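quick one, 393 residues, struct below
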Amino acid sequence: MKEVNVALDSLEDKDAVDAAVAASEGIARLEAVRFRALAQLNRHRDGAAGVTQEVAFALSVVDGHAAGLVSTAQALTTRLPRTLGLLDRGQVGGYGAMKVATATAWLSDDDARAVDEVLEARLPGRNSDQIRKAANHAAMMADRDGAGLRTERHRAGRRLSIRQGETGVASIEVEDGPVEKVAAAYTRIDREARALKTGDEPRTLDQLRADVALDLLLSGQGGKSERCEVFLYMDLNTYLGVNEDPAELAGHGHIPAALARHIASGPDTVLRRIITDPLSGQVLDLGRDRYRPTAGLGEFVRVRDRECRRPGCHRVAQACDLDHSLPWQHGGHTSDTELIDLCRRDHRLKDEPGWVYRLASDGTLTITTPTGRSYDSTPPPLHEPRAEEPPPF
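---
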């Protein structure tokens, strides 16, 4: 091990990243071994409840995590063989595999295997949150009626919990709250926190968000009292009830059609017309009929991007900065072909030495890191690409 550490100390940046990637792939393969061993243990014990506690003791993990490991092991070795294969090849980590198992736990065996097959090509190179979204969407598509019932049960289980921390601190959480209300509440808290972040304000944005949230809970007075927006992307046919295709809530992911229609029919809902390219599903134009004045170009970019454009970041566009993919001082233009949404952290990262951002004409953002690795981000289409129809003459 000492020789390995000495060798690592001599690596250049690119080689260090390559070594970390190789180590992660090796860890994933070992996690596949661990899942198979836990599945074998569970089979020997006929799924007895004591298996979870034994795993918790043996691996020095809490009971909840042990239960997740055991249930994932069972799913991977029975219903999700392709996801297990990705672990064997080091293309998905154990935590990502657990997300797939959780997203498909409510499906029948046949539907779970069908989802597993669909996901095989979609998961490599994705982080755990992207895997969660992809798996949930595929599961909804496999059993749309069941997805709606599952969502109703989850929303009925909403609760408020408190967790005591170290000396002098504690946490309060609304668990399983309606996603549209939670998203709107966070947007309002974030907006008011940013309004308080003046030049002489010593608190960080994280501290301000926490303070604003507690002030609102205790007194109902947090700052500005304007209505907050969440972006819900839904096909017109879904809205009209013609089909049951899932909709998407920016920052959260896909939700069942019935829930989307419930949100869209709320008393304060503002509907917008969005024109898309039928072949790609990408946004081409925004309708201007709405209750509030538009913000023009900035609004178009936020609706198009939905979230921060760095691959793997899901901060909603309303809480992001509009930034030039090519810096203004280097010839960038303020147009929809060069503007992108980046959260404050990624906005700052873009300006660090060695980071290169390129925006293609189709909206694909390519980020090249200082070690030369490139990652692509494309705004998700509002609908699946559709076959080009022949002209009606």
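The CA atoms of residues 288 and 294 lie 7 Å apart.
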